[in-house]
Structures are given as structure tokens and as C-alpha cells.
Amino acid sequence: MKAGRLKILCAPLALLLPPASSTAASPPPTLKPGLWAFHYTSTVQMLAGAVRTLNQTSRECIKDTNPARIPLMAKLPPNIRCAAPALQVIAKGYHVTMACTAREPNGMIAHMDENFVITPGNGGSQISLAGTVHERITGAPVSIPATMVRISAQGHRTGSCPGPKP
Predict the structure, then answer these.
(1) Total domain count for the chain?
(2) β pairing state of 93-103 and 109-121
(3) Which of 75, 73, 143 is closest to 108 using CA atoms?
(4) Is residue 166 part of a domain?
(5) Which of 2, 87, 95, 105 is deepest in the core (most CB within 10 A)?
């Protein structure tokens, strides 16, 4: 599997976009603003049987504490476009669904359908995410099997965001 394809598979979930819809259930705890550390585990399974697990970490200054806008995944490359996520408040947090398309210079197009549950915890100082991304590729010179990516992420607030440098 090429590194570029792995980048596509690891980057889904553009939760920086505003939600398309929401229900009126009791909202989960509000997240606390500040410096957050995130750890992501992505297990990529091609329907042909190959499996690969990837781990990533990041640190983000979170000012907008709306869970639909926090960067629980690495920033998306510019070739990936996503529909606004549908956000539903559920008992343990949020259920998010979204569709994304990644266009490659060689004409290949990755179509991704995403389905996640986001759960805030510890009074807004922690958050976890679990879900799947189903991906299929079109426009390839040879047939590429569909893939399913299981993603889990945990984040916790580590302190205040650093101030501007003088």
C-alpha cells in the first residue's frame, strides 16, 4: 500500500466543519478550551484480507469547544472534500456521519463514508471517538479492493494554549 493512500485512509473525519443537523437531546458535557493531546489508532482492513494498524499523535490548541468542530483526526490534505457532517446528540455524546471524496492527480477518486460516535468525559477534559470509514476507489488502472478503516481516538486537555511569541 502506497504512503499517499495511507495518508488518505488516516485523515478522514473532518470534524472542523459545522454540523448539518442536530437533535434536541440533552447535550453531553461541554469541552474545556486549551491545549489538547490526541492519540489515534487506525486499523485498515482491505476486503481482500490485508490488515495494517497505524498510530498517530498530535497536540492541538482548542478554542472552539463544540465537539463537532474539534480536530480529532490529523488535518485533511487539500485534495479531500467532505460534505458537512450530520451530527446527532445521543445519550453518551454525539453520533456523526459524513461522506468525503479524495481526488488524486492520477485520476483516482476515493469515496469515503464515515460513521463515528464522539464521547466527552471527565467534566469536558477528555474525549474519545470510535467509528469506521468505508472506502472504495474508482478511476484506478487496476481494480483496488474496498477497505474498511476502524478508527479510535482519545484526547485530553493538558493545560492552557501557549501565548503568542514576542
Answers:
(1) 1
(2) antiparallel
(3) 143
(4) no
(5) 87
Residue 14 lies in a domain: yes
Q: Which three cell numbers stand for residue 21?
A: 443537523
- Decide: helix, strand or coil at residue 32: coil
C-alpha span between 40 and 75 (Å, rounded): 13
Domain with 147 in it: 3-159
C-alpha cell at 52: 495494517
Residue 58 φ then ψ, to 5°: -155, 165
Q: How far apart are CA 79 and CA 145, in angstroms?
A: 21
**Residues 18-61 pLDDT 10s:** 333 344 456 666 778 999 999 989 898 876 676 889 898 988 88
Q: Output the CA angle 122-124-130, nearest 5 degrees.
A: 80
Q: Which three cell numbers stand for residue 121?
A: 468525559
Residue tagged 466527552 (cell numbers) = 120
The structure's pTM equals 0.71
Residue 137 pLDDT > 90: yes
DSSP 123: G
Number of Cβ within 10 Å of residue 92's Cβ equals 13
